[in-house]
Amino acid sequence: MRARWKERVRGSAVPYLLIADDPQHTNRIRVLGPSHGKRPIQSVSAELLPDSLHQVAKLPAFDAIRRIADDLARIGGDGLTVNGLLTRHTLEYRFKGDPARWESASEEVRSVKPADSWQHVLRKRKALNRRARW
């Protein structure tokens, strides 16, 4: 990949993102770039990268480069897996991106009140988790 990178860029300052299949992992791709070819070659989810690319297509070049680099750091590698916690990423990508899942989750949490203690909310979530798999 680095040889292809050097061949394509040839010392230019133009950002270049090289993407190739990852033969060692299913549903993953290898990525090099965008700012320079000395970065580590990352194996990232083939499902998450297209969303990121669509979002940065609307940004000015400098902002797009930064955003892609940040997104690659976020989705690259196996990273930290947290089970049972609701994260911003879960809401923005997994729930809102799937209208049926968003509606189901919205219905389930309607009974949670701002005054409820966190222990009560977690116990309720544990009970809900037995009934519905989001």
| Number of helices, where a helix is a run of at least 4 consecutive DSSP H or I residues | 6
Oligomeric state of this protein: single chain
Domains, number: 2
Based on CA inertia axes, which overall geometry fits? elongated
> Within the largest sheet, what's the order of strands?
1-2-3
Could you characterize what this model shows?
With 134 residues, the protein is mostly helical. The protein has 2 domains: 74 residues, no CATH class; 44 residues, no CATH class. Helix content is 48%, strand content 10%. The chain is built from 6 helices and 3 strands, in the order αβββααααα. Strands 1-2-3 form a 3-stranded antiparallel β-sheet, with helices on one face. A hairpin with a 6-residue loop joins strand 1 and strand 2. Helix 2 runs antiparallel to helix 3. The radius of gyration is 20 Å and the shape is elongated. It starts with a helix and ends with a helix. The model has no long low-confidence stretch (mean pLDDT 77).
Topology (SSEs and partners):
Blueprint: H1 2-9, E1 18-21, E2 28-32, E3 42-45, H2 49-56, H3 61-75, H4 88-95, H5 99-109, H6 118-131
Antiparallel strand pairs: 1-2, 2-3
Helix pairs in contact: 2-3
Supply database-style keywords.
single chain, about 130 residues, mainly alpha, three-stranded antiparallel sheet, elongated, 2 domains, 6 helices
